[in-house]
Write a structure and sequence with these properties.
Helix content is 23%, strand content 30%. By secondary structure, the protein is an alpha+beta fold. Strands 12, 13, 14, 15, 16, 17, 18 and 19 form an 8-stranded antiparallel beta sheet that branches. The N terminus is likely disordered.
Length: 367
């Protein structure tokens, strides 16, 4: 093997380790229609397609015959036909037809992945199929249309590790410095300490701020924002930002507001960072108000802000990746704001170790 080919082989392996026994977001449900949809998760090419009853099926995007992409195939009822030489596969990946011959070799089989469509996302299990547990799919309930949230959606492709995107989402102190022009965020996001709680498969963040400029909720003036999020394995981020009149934080004794405390504004964002390959990721995002405090016009306004903010994040994160790549033995110096980042990454590292050793997946993020 030449030096060039060795380097090329090394670059196909992601720099960071990721949990395999987990459900990853491969696409928005709306992206998978009457024709197969190509995606990639953890360096593995996928072909997502639907049977005639609408059920989701996910194959490796590789026909076992001549290795043509099955994402260029044709859906035929409950089967998928490769449109290079016409081989037909059922939903299990078994080849059931080869034009011009009766005998079908047992090896003529496309790899099928456990797949579930839920919360407007197409989820794929990247680990041991025997361990695929649908109860481990994060509950992204705000994306369900009957929950009353008016969410715009989008996708960004990153030239960086998905883990860096997750670090960015978890540490909201960056809002003070990356997004002041977009969100009107003050240094309070960096100077105030949130409540951090370990979850069985993630971390939870809760924070009151007081007397802040009201840019996200519209209407101007000063407000008390309450922000809470869950970051869940393998990279699912659910954040709720609720805005109240000044004085509400103190009246609630800086604890979570009850349902009887009526907000001025209420918005949710559901996001997923999926590793696609070596230092690349796909970022799925949504944002919008609850229908009780906003409408489609408000949602569209928030999405304009979101696209601007996420472009700011992308520039910083991809710049960070370039510096990491150029640094021999890169090391970071954690600060107090990094506590939830460290907790979440320790949880992921624990799950990866357990997978490699054949142990269980149980265990919360260390507090």
């Amino acid at each position: 093997m030449t030096a060039t080919s060795t380097a090329a082989t090394a670059r196909t392996t992601p720099q960071m380790n990721y949990v395999r026994n987990a459900w990853y977001v491969a696409a928005w449900s709306s992206d998978v229609g009457d024709t197969p949809f190509a995606a990639k998760v953890m360096g593995e090419p996928l072909a997502l397609w639907r049977k005639d009853d609408g059920a989701l099926v996910v194959f490796e995007d590789r026909c076992p015959h001549r290795l043509a992409p099955l994402s260029m195939g044709r859906c035929e009822g409950a089967r998928l036909r490769c449109m290079y030489h016409g081989l037909v596969f059922d939903e299990t990946g078994k080849c059931v037809e080869i034009p011009g011959q009766d005998m079908i070799p047992p090896a003529a089989k496309a790899r099928a992945y456990p797949a579930v469509e839920r919360h407007q996302w197409c989820w794929v299990w990247m680990g041991d199929p025997a361990k695929a547990d649908e109860s481990l799919i994060p509950n992204v309930w705000p994306l369900d249309p009957d929950q009353g949230w008016l969410l715009g959606t989008g996708i960004l492709d990153y030239q960086s590790e998905a883990r860096l995107i997750c670090d960015n989402l978890i540490d909201l102190s960056h809002l003070s410095y990356v997004h002041p022009a977009t969100f009107g965020t003050t240094e309070s996001w960096a100077t105030h300490s949130p409540k951090i709680t370990a979850l069985p498969r993630g971390v939870r963040y809760e924070l009151w701020l007081e007397d802040q400029p009201n840019m996200v909720g519209g209407g101007g003036g000063q407000v008390d924002p309450w922000t809470t999020y869950d970051m869940l394995v393998p990279g699912i981020f659910l954040l709720r930002n609720t805005i109240y009149p000044v004085g509400t934080a103190k009246a609630c004794n800086y604890e979570a507001p009850g349902e009887d405390v009526k907000p001025l504004f209420d918005a949710y964002t559901c996001q997923a960072a999926t590793p696609t390959g070596d230092r690349t990721a796909r970022y799925f995002y949504s944002w919008g108000p609850h229908s009780s405090v906003g409408n489609e016009e408000v949602r569209d306004h928030l999405m304009v802000m979101a696209r601007q903010a996420f472009a700011e994040d992308q520039a910083m994160i991809e710049g960070q990746q370039r510096v990491l790549d150029a640094t021999e033995d890169p090391r970071v110096i954690p600060t107090a704001a990094d506590r939830p980042v460290v907790m979440y990454n320790q949880l992921l590292a624990k799950l990866v170790r357990e997978e490699k050793s054949g142990g269980t997946e149980s265990g919360e993020a260390a507090a």
